[in-house]
Design a protein that fits this description.
The protein is an all-alpha fold. Helices cover 78% and strands 0% of the residues. It is elongated and about 70 Å long.
């Protein structure tokens, strides 16, 4: 099985950086959950493990994240209908401008 990254820039940009951003974002919640389950570990151990786990989760959810952001899937029907109508109107306008 091939890893989804190599140990170079891709590792930093696809795993470590997103993991670090998500870890920094959810740090208070993560500490509360670890305290709730009685895990006592120093921050120097928790942070790298959290960065790798959160980065891996984001790496796995890469395609669904793009699908949601681009509106290809998982959008409410009314929003999808509105977006398609808006883009169709834009295409008609561009076609008319090109024909003129």
């Amino acid at each position: 099985m091939k890893l989804p990254f190599d140990f170079a820039n891709k590792l930093l940009l696809r795993l470590v950086l997103p993991g670090a951003l998500l870890t920094a974002t959810v740090w208070p919640v993560l500490l509360a959950v670890l305290h709730w389950v009685h895990v006592a570990a120093p921050d120097a151990v928790i942070v790298p493990i959290a960065i790798l786990i959160f980065g891996w989760v984001i790496l796995l959810l890469d395609m669904p994240i793009y699908m949601i952001a681009e509106g290809r899937r998982y959008w409410p029907n009314w929003l999808r209908t509105w977006g398609v109508a808006r883009e169709s109107a834009r295409l008609r306008g561009l076609t008319a401008a090109r024909a003129a």
